[in-house]
Design goal:
With about 100 residues, this protein is mainly α. Helices cover about 65% and strands about 10% of the residues. It has a two-stranded parallel sheet. Helix 3 links the parallel strand 1 and strand 2. Helix 2 packs across helix 3.
């Protein structure tokens, strides 16, 4: 007995869906792997060029530190300074009672 036409359609639909999913995963894996390989090959050549156009280190002035502390006035919690340089803002925030962390890029 071949079963009903509905059962045959359901099996074909499930097989088609599984086949599409498998191809989708394969294509995603190939594209992702290619991008990772391209990144790994290109970065040693691109990185020196990026260094030449980056901005130089300029320490925060006392006015800038005062402005940051004014913005933090009547607040509490933590402060994260990305590109913190020598950490002047992080140190000033910690002295004001904040849990301060700085990350230099």
């Amino acid at each position: 007995d071949g079963g009903s036409p509905k059962d045959d359609f359901s099996l074909k639909s499930t097989a088609t869906s599984t086949n599409r999913r498998t191809w989708g995963l394969v294509v995603t894996g190939v594209v992702g792997g290619s991008l990772v390989a391209l990144y790994a090959v290109a970065m040693p050549f691109v990185t020196p060029a990026l260094r030449s156009i980056c901005l130089p280190f300029v320490p925060a002035t006392s006015t800038q530190i005062e402005n940051v502390l004014k913005m933090l006035h009547s607040r509490s919690g933590s402060v994260v300074d990305i590109g913190s340089g020598d950490g002047r803002i992080v140190i000033a925030a910690a002295k004001e009672g904040f849990q301060a962390v700085g990350f230099e890029l």
